[in-house]
Every structure is written in C-alpha cells, then in structure tokens.
Write a structure and sequence with these properties.
Elements: H1 2-37, H2 39-46, H3 48-51, H4 61-75, E1 79-83, E2 92-96, E3 101-104, E4 111-114, H5 117-131, H6 138-165, H7 169-172, H8 182-193, H9 195-207, H10 211-218, H11 238-241, E5 250-255, E6 264-269, E7 281-286, E8 292-297, H12 303-308, H13 311-316, H14 321-355
Antiparallel strand pairs: 1-2, 1-5, 2-3, 3-4, 5-6, 6-7, 7-8
Helix pairs in contact: 1-5, 1-6, 1-14, 6-9, 8-14
Keywords: Membrane, Transmembrane, Transmembrane helix
Transmembrane segments: 16-38, 140-162, 189-210, 322-347
Pfam families: PepSY_TM (PF03929)
Amino acid sequence: MNQLLHFNRTIKNIHLWLGISCGLLASISGLTGSLYVWQPEITAALNPKLLTATQIDTISEGTLLRTASFLMEMHKDSLTRINLPYREQQTISLIYKNGETHYHHPQTATFLGTKSASIQFFEDLLNIHRTLAIPKIGKYIMGGSSIIFLLLILGTGIYIWWKAYGNNFKKGFNIKWKGKKLNYDLHKVLGVGFFIPLAIIAFSGAYFTYNSYYKAALTLLDSSKLAQNQNTVIQPKFTELTRKPDTIYALRAIYFPKESNGEFHFRYIQDRFIEPGLRRSKELKLTETDEVSSLTQFHTDLTSNKIAAQFYPVHTGEIAGFFGRILVFISGLVPITLYITGFRIYFTRKEKQLKRPKCKK
C-alpha cells in the first residue's frame, strides 16, 4: 500500500513539474500550430495579387512547365529554387540566391511582385513552431518536448484521471461551470477528451526532428529491407522534365545545385492543391549530365516510406480534410488551456496549504 501511494505521488509530481516546464513549450507549439493550420487561406486572402490566378484549373500542366522553363532560362544563374503552383500558391515563384522571392503569372510569366510581410510572417511563425527560432538546437528542443508531452505529461494525466474516475466515467467528464472547481474540471475534461488528437499531433510532430529513427522503426513493416533501386529506370532529360508533364505527378518545385558539381532536385506531388487523403509524391535528383542519382515515387515505394510521407498531412489534419484541420486547430489551443488551468489549480492548493493552521509542538 505504501509503495502504491508513493508511486501515485511520484506520478502526480512528474505531471506537475513537467507540465509547468515542458507544458510551456507545448503551449507555444500548439498556439503557433493552430494559427498555421489556416496559413493557406489567410495568405491567399491577404495576397491575391501574388498568390492567385484567374481560372487556374483551366491552365494546363504543359503551360505551367513552359512558363517555368522560360523563367528559369532567364534567371537560372541567380536562382536557388523555382516553385510551381502548390497549396495556396497558384502562381510561380522564383527564389533567388540573395534571398528575394519574386512571383510570376503561371501563364503569361508577368512579374507580380515580391514576398509580402504577411507571407514572411507565416514563414517566421513556422520557424518558431518547429525550432523556437533557435538555430541548430531549436528543433531538438521542440522535438524533445513533443515526446515528453506525449509520454509523460499526457500519459501521467491519463493515469491520474483513471485512478480518480475509472469507476465513474460520467463524473470524470462533468464540468461545473459555476463551481469553485471550474479550473480543475476544465483541466481534467480537456485533458482526457483531447488525449487522442493531442497524442497523434505530438507523435507526428516529433517525426520532423527524429525522422531517421521513425524511418528505421518503420522498415520493420517492409516485406523486404532492400531499398528499391529505381535509378536504372529511363528518365527524361533535364530539358524534357521542364517541358513535358509527368503522367502521374505534377511538378511542384525545382531545386538548383548549391555547388557547381551538385544535383538538380525535382519534387512532384499528385495533387497540387490541398485535398483530403494520402500524400503521394515523387522525388528525383539529376546530375548536370542528366544521370539519375536518386528516385523515389509513392506508387512503387516501400511501405515504410509511404507511411512516413503521411506524417505531414496527419500532423496538420489535412489527411481528414476540412474536419481534420478544424480538429487540429482546436486541439492546438488545448495545451495553453491546460497550462493555465494547471497553474491555477497549483496556486489554489498552495493558498489552502498556507491558510491551514500549523500544529503546535
């Protein structure tokens, strides 16, 4: 009995002190993530001139590639990347070596303008969400806090809830809005009610820091651990890739070599704009002599890679469409609510302890 009491007290202390420390990071991550869920709609609404094109659905893949090829020929010596229409962006953007971003019409190649403050804001917001804007170690801080939030804060919270309400679920989900225990009721109900979505978001979020470990674990699902070698498949030459549409995937970006003997990286996606369902992509790397150095594509890829490709749409909720995004948005607001209510519960209990009369010796 004493051992059980000691164990339960330890669990509560872990939940308290990790909630106070790592809970703050989870709150920052949740708030920035919630806002970023609507980044496509907000940036498109604020930047119609830069990001939208009339009747984009009527512009053929061939036209998009010809426009991108024309712009590349004009500016290729000063470019690091070309982005074709993807997600909220219906135009073509050129990323220059000096850091500037220029937008062009996808059909006429007309210059539309440079990166706006609102677009930069969401890029900075994503950087805070992923790294706290701390170079090098920031991603490990956020990735580590996601794992701690998942395993220790959520895990201990569920254990505490189960010990208190395992025999009376109805009471465990009850909120007395006018009672003195409002903070406690909100804390317990939101914690257990959003346990599953928060666990999924935390688990998928940590992937972006520890993807090599995730992929190593996922290889257990492959029927064969031998990587598929698709480099022998005959691929069109560089000039053809920029003019002839792929039969399965749409070209979304071309990354130029960072060094003189580097590789060109072609990124493809099956759906240019946000759609529910699995994320299907293709990655192709070419040398300057048109030799294929790397090729992966969803429809022939290993099971582990297919699953790994879904962490982003799962994390953002896009895999479940508009409903999934709403769920992620609301879930992202829960950690800060748990953090505030948890603090208020802690200070309320401290005040009660201080008001108790001390026993005389």
